[in-house]
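User: Sequence in, structure out. Go.
Assistant: Echoing your sequence, followed by the structure tokens.
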Amino acid sequence: MLDKKKVVVGMSGGVDSAVAAYVLKEQGYEVIGITMKLWEEDEENYAEDYGGCCSLSSVEDARLVCEKLDIPFYVINYNERFIETVVDNFIDEYLSGHTPSPCIRCNKYIKFDELLKTAHSLGAYYVATGHYGIIAYNEALDRYTISKSKELRKDQTYMMYSLSQEQIKHTLMPLGVYETKEEVRQIAEREDLIVARKNDSQEICFVIDDDYARFVKEHSKKKIPKGKFVDTDGNVLGEHKGIIHYTIGQRKGLGVTFGKPMYVVEIRPKTNEVVLGDNEDVFKKELTAKEVNIITMERLPEAYECEGKVRYSSKTASCTIYPLEDNRVRVEFREPQRAVTPGQSVVFYDGDLLLGGGVIE
């Protein structure tokens, strides 16, 4: 029997998860802290040098927070499942000329799946994280929903669109109600938590130095051949060093000068070509997306108007969604969107309400 007053908090060693654990304990929950060991192998030295979430220092910070809060603390290794569902996909996507979003897959398969299974095995009804979002049950929709956090600058709902109703039902996100991140830090300082002024982690946890191409080269069995830069008419402009080094919209770091700014507008893995064009060539009004998950309804109508965003840092824009076969959709934006990138996600909103999303094809 699962206990609705018992929750497992994913402890990253940062301030957000620490305050989430504190807040939930104050609300009367029996809190268990768990740090997920996701990546270790040959990246261990990088993790220590750059302070990644899997470093020994982060694990120690999480342990000290749990000790301060007087809650149990465990470190559990999810490395094998993480490689299988997140890292291998990351490598395959880059080799296919795509730019993946590993944090979205980690949420779907690890934080709100594997960790939730662990929580249930401990008798806990809920799993909780330091993510910024607001979870509620909507009686009119008869569904669990996720809405943007009050601190919009830290809102992380873009990363949550792939969660199922069952996952959302068993998830708590206590930080979504705070107006500013500074409020969260002030709570940590007031409670004398060691991580109160610790910097936010920005990097992908298994690519600590932010050099994605290096990581793919070192962890792929495939050779990364050089190829041709071509323009939008197919004219050869020069040689590129391998498609894994480029993403849609990129201007800097091309390694070749053309006398004017040139941007990556397409990557063609079959011909090993990187297409360059002018800034206006980077904008598109339409896209198709696969692996679509809609949180707020069982199925989409034939045409659904809402707002969408094509990357975490972009603003939402008016669009219409048209369902296709095989859990895919076609999306038409009212205004052209910059750098629509295969492998990234398009995520849909109705105001602050997260509708769902999918992976851009």
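User: And one key feature?
Assistant: Residues 46-51 have pLDDT under 50 and may be disordered.
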